[in-house]
Sequence to fold (178 residues):
Amino acid sequence: MLQNNSTLKSLIDKLWNNFWSGGISNPLTAIEQITYLIFMKRLDELEAKRERDAEFTGEPYTCRFCGIYKVPGSDQEIAKNELRWSIFKHKPADEMLFHVQTKVFPFLKELNGGASPFTKHMANAVFIMPKASLLVEAINIIEQLFTEIEKDASEGGQAFQDIQGDVYEMLLSEIATA
Fold:
């Protein structure tokens, strides 16, 4: 359980405080932005696992991050691989912020095609990050969060998804407190 892991609680508090001090003072907006970032991270991890599994089993697999992505509202095209968390997290701060705002987030909004429920729910979603430094800090904390979740899952015997659910519950409790 999350309450037994002071490191996870501390990281969540730090993430929350960074958003607050970084200019996102509306708790609903903060949790929305944190959720988008966690989704980006988890999507990349799950995709990498599916790719490894397909390679191991020899079964065909269509990668979400393979091919070319046409950036909406421009003539620009980018390799979908560049839209992965594991790739963009290494970009310089200002370049990373622009990349996530103009390429990664639009890609996520279209992830399952125009007719999917996911795409309909994401239609009005906006990625709001006032400063590149806030994005870099958030990415670093989320990386630490996932490392701690994996450690807790392997040592404590809980499923990764259960611990991740506890993390979301704590974030939601921050809204109630705010």
Summary: The CA atoms of residues 150 and 160 lie 7 Å apart. Helices lie at 6-21, 27-57, 85-88, 93-109, 117-122, 132-156, 160-177. The mean pLDDT is 85. DSSP finds seven helices and two strands in the chain.
